[in-house]
From TrEMBL:
One Pfam family recorded for the sequence: HNH
Residues forming coiled coils: none
Protein name: HNH domain-containing protein
Domain of life: Bacteria
Residue ranges constituting the HNH domain according to the UniProt record: 145-201
Signal peptide: none
Classification via InterPro entries: HNH (IPR002711), HNH_nuc (IPR003615)
Organism: Ferrimonas pelagia
Amino acid sequence: MAHIPEEAHVVAYYLAKFPDSYKNLEPNKNMTNLLISYSRFFSMPDSSLKRLRDEYDAFFPHRAGYKGAEKRSSRVKVNDSLKKLSEPELHEKVLNIVNEESALLPEIETGTPLWEGKKVQIQVNKFERNRYARAACIEHHGLTCQCCLNNMGELYGEIAEGIIEVHHIKPISEIGVDYQIDPIIDLVPLCPNCHRVVHKRNPPYTVEEVQSAFKKI
């Protein structure tokens, strides 16, 4: 199998460990269609993600396993890095990979309360994020990372224009109830690198802590 993106391994592992999880990702698709769709998402041949999922079946007694496949060292490494994650944690990780949201949304009336953090009952609890809040955060703060002060479009040119992630200063999973969010105070735009650094610890590092570390380089 050709080079496979790291993110594709996470998705394949999740679908192998929790076989019914595809229903929580795209309820209108069966497993076969979802695997084809995600293979294309990762710019791989249609059968690639299914084959990868089949390989990870070998790690779980509730699956028949990929016939004839050995537990290759690269697959063992992925299993070791992900096996301690719960179903909700893996689900959230997969959503972050496959659900890249655009900040280009229809306008809403100024002053409209923005709510998020509602627990949406599926087979696991997923904390709902408000896309309008994301858009409002970016509109106010812009596309410059508030940690490293880099703008992806300025660094890479047109191919990276608009790439930015929005970080919840207080993780909504800690709040556990609906709350009215202030997209200017509660959210901050971060580049993918800084956002990943922020979440290397639980609880996450503060933006100020990452800023301080960056300045020491």
